[in-house]
């Protein structure tokens, strides 16, 4: 079972977020947060976060392309949905910190990916047990 179109779109979104955090952390925060503090520690944390996102993207891609166990792939799908859903809940709980229109875009993407991964998980075939 190869990665789905949803999985590839998720990788592109993740790499996009990571690139923004690594290369333009201050601009990313300015575009997305109503107020932000610019200093080297905050920018460094953005870069670190971006690197972790890339690491998780690579690990997720390796599992999707190399692991043959369908149940593992179902768990990866569930974890992706939970991750995006949790990000959506975080966005909602800190809505006042967000900056329009990007807070709407971010929440829309989070909602889309959470729902799409929930659908993918529920429609994936399980490995048949003999």
From TrEMBL:
It comes from the Eukaryota. This is Uncharacterized protein.
